[in-house]
Amino acid sequence: MNDERLTVAEATEDTDERQPGQTEQRDQPEQPEPPGQPEQAGKRRRRGPGPFTLLVLPALVTVTGVATFLALTGGMPSPWPEESDGNQATTVDIDPSYIPWLRKAASACTILEPSVLAAQIDQLSGWSDDTDELSGQKGIAAFTDTEWRTWGKDDDGNGHSSPRDPADAIMALGRQDCSLAEKVTALRTEGRVNGDLVDLTLAAYSSGTDAVTEAGRIPATAETYLAEVKALLPRYEALDRADSGGGAGGAAGALLAAPVSPLTITSPYGSREHPLTGVTKLHTGVDFAAPQGAQVAAARQGRVVFAAPTNAYGNRIVIDHGTIQGKRLETTYSHLSSLEAAVGQEVEAGTPIGRVGSTGLSTGPHLHFEVVLDGYYTDPRPWLVAGG
Fold first, then answer.
1. What is the domain-level CATH number for residue 141?
2. 202 in any annotated domain
3. Per the confidence metrics, is the pTM higher than 0.90?
4. What is the DSSP string of 125-142?
5. What is the CA radius of gyration of the chain?
6. What is the extent of the structural domain holding 194?
7. Residue 159: what pLDDT?
8. For the segment 76-101, what is each residue's pLDDT rounded down to a tens digit?
9. Is 68 domain-assigned?
10. What sign does the dihedral 206-210-211-216 (CA atoms) show?
11. 329 and 208 assigned to the same domain
């Protein structure tokens, strides 16, 4: 991924970002022997069991035994089902920069879900991009050179197409799966195969469409692969919800709502020559065409951390959206004609924050929009749009 580290100066232009002790337990002094109880022949006089021994001590022994049993076994089973922890389903253990690409790739066909793609990649490579020298498979989606010539493209616009580029690999796997899904759908419509379309698609990926056609169902050669992928699916089910990161709104499959409407890109993310300075470097966001004074809205729930004029970006707003998969997500909005939000303000997706303008180094009215993940610029397009 062709990301560049976002420094505080770039984001704000010279604006600053922003065991309890234990109580000592002292030994208690020994209590003297009660008066009137002399020892005989150097020994204490033996007494019979009192009411404490007869009544209380057996109960204490029983309670202690039960407590020890519960500690060792994890507790008694409850007759009532426990409520599941909702937080466990809201996160997946992958690089969060992959999430918008998984959602975008899956949106290419109705059968495919992001969780299926993620489970496939997990089964294929365990999310490792190491090259398999024996098979010739490369990258997280394990493409061979021959397969890559068919399915590979420069989807992230960094100037080259590579199976070792995670964004390119995820999108290529989505195209391959959607093509297979189309074929098995046609076969099932014709009555030549039976079965769940997702299962048939995975079987076709593993063993080929011809093997599925010949078997008329999931072929035996694909059963192991299918079982392994399906066993991994629960890890990634959170990706299939309309918003796996917490209420962005907007198009289905997008993590961020559109900051302006429509989303007409005039300059994409990637290397370019600046139209005013003539310097060729990374264009850290996307430019959206919009008329002077058009409303600009927050792309996601968050807190405004910067709202002020800058030299290059003109009037600029930065919103901190908290963390996604443990990495901080921020969005920026630049060249605004006016600022309608203040530092510290809490916003929701769609909250008006400013107006389109041409302040700073700008050739005309537009919105320069950036997505910053854990301090690095990343392509905003997959975060905003499920397809296209």
1. 1.10.530.10
2. yes
3. no
4. HTT-----TTT--BTTTT
5. 31
6. 96-240
7. 81
8. 333 222 233 333 334 667 888 898 89
9. no
10. positive
11. no
